[in-house]
Structure prediction request, 256 residues.
Amino acid sequence: MKHRGPPKGTSHSQGSGAGKGPRRRSGSAPQTPAKAVSVPDESLDTALAADKAAALKLAPVSRETEARLDRYIALLREWQAKTNLVASSTLPHLWTRHIADSLQLVALAPDARSWVDLGSGGGFPGIVLACVMAEFPGAVVHLVERNAKKAAFLREAIRVTGSPSMVHLAEIGDNVDRITGPVDCVTARALAPLHQLVGFAEPLVHLGAKALFLKGQDIEAELTEAAKYWSIQPQLHQSRTGDGWIVELAAIERRG
Prediction:
């Protein structure tokens, strides 16, 4: 297995899981329960304004896409009070930690118009990608989510942003091979260990899709584990927004 790996000596513990649609997520922005941080609305508004400016320098978008993302963030803040969509500690950094982190995938698949996002959760990267794809006639983003409350949020986010998306409320492993039509790119963020993601994505990659997985620092260990089950030649891209990595796969073959 050949790949461009991260520098030696980096380490970052990630969660692991087993079976279809794991409840414990692992990736570039782990959904680890964080101690709630109470931030006054005015202070949060100020922090988000500065964070947005920094994020859009990292990943510029059109005014139309920016407006859709603004509506999405407003909705997420409203729902966050009753549904845990992101770690509370990351709220002041929604734009850099979550929006820009998702937007960077567009540059890695500039011609992709049909996307499948596995385990969309609070909409990263799926809804963010859909906000961009709204500029391209015929584009679509499939959002696969097993949690009914989060699926309801995703449907409302689609309505509020006017983005070309559809929600599939289903177990991840049971649904990806049922998506009809061509798929250009399959994504996942903070969902599962790499060897499981590869298994979920394999049916779509076999049909011509490219996989882009947002992962954390401990990517070498995940690649080693994945190589036990899959023959892959990953290309690694260092994240613009942190210490994580994006794993790009153009082909997947099961070992044995």
Remarks:
- The first strand starts at residue 114 and ends at 118.
- Strands lie at 114-118, 140-145, 165-169, 185-189, 210-215, 230-231, 235-238, 245-249, 253-254.
